[in-house]
Amino acid sequence: LSLQINEGDIAIFDVKGFSFQHLSKISLSSVRAYMQFTQEGFPLRLKQVHFINVSPIVNKIMMIARPFMNKKVKDSLKFHSDDLTSFYEQVAKKYLPKDYGGDCEELAELKEKFLKEIMENRFVVVQWKVLKNLFVEKPLGPTSFRKSIGNQFTP
Predict the structure, then answer these.
(1) What is the pLDDT of residue 153?
(2) Nearest one of 41, 36, 40, 34 to 13, comparing CA atoms
(3) Overall pTM surpassing 0.70 (yes/no)
(4) CA dihedral sign of residues 90, 95, 99, 101
(5) How far, in Å, CA of 147 to CA of 143, rounded?
(6) Cα separations (Å) of 84 from 23, 31, 80, 90, 100?
(7) What is the pLDDT of residues 17-33, one digit of tens each?
(8) Vertex 134: Cα angle to 131 and 140 (nearest 5)
(9) Radius of gyration of the chain (CA)
(10) How far is Cα 20 from Cα 9, in angstroms, rounded to an integer?
(11) In the chain, what are the helix, strand and coil shares in percent, each to the nearest 5?
């Protein structure tokens, strides 16, 4: 029996159009909280984090965020300008949507499939919410229970 363990996921952030106006909306406390979550609470193992269509403003944001990053996270970050040649050297096109020069379906199609999958399996999400309320948070009374699941079981 062979056990395959995921070497890690690759996150890709398209920061095209990111501006100083966006930077003004970012607080130091939210950067700190996000970095803490990413390093300690994120439920996936991130092998690499790619930022594509990077402008000089992204470098300023990274200067703010870097003090809150451990070495492993810093080493996983990859930055690519609008010339994606270096990106394609690290991420095979067979894994990318057509929107980014890849071989997979377009993002809109992938989003539609993802939402369909979520809706077809929404009972799992509802069950998780119910279990969380039963075992983690305070138990729900009958009225609160009905409110918590709402009309999740109807199409």
Answers:
(1) 45
(2) 34
(3) no
(4) positive
(5) 6
(6) 24, 27, 6, 10, 9
(7) 888 787 778 787 887 78
(8) 120
(9) 20
(10) 30
(11) 55, 10, 35
Whole-angstrom CA distances from 77 to 45, 47, 90, 105 are 14, 9, 12, 26
**Phi then psi dihedrals of residue 49, to 5 deg:** -130, 115
User: Nearest 5°: CA angle at 92, between 6 and 19?
Assistant: 95
In degrees to the nearest 10, what's the CA dihedral of 76, 72, 5, 42? -90
pLDDT tens sequence across 120-134 = 887 776 776 666 665
Which pLDDT score, from 0 to 100, does residue 154 have? Answer: 45
Q: How confident is the model at residue 3, as a pLDDT? A: 54
Q: Which two tokens stand for residue 32?
A: 């700190």
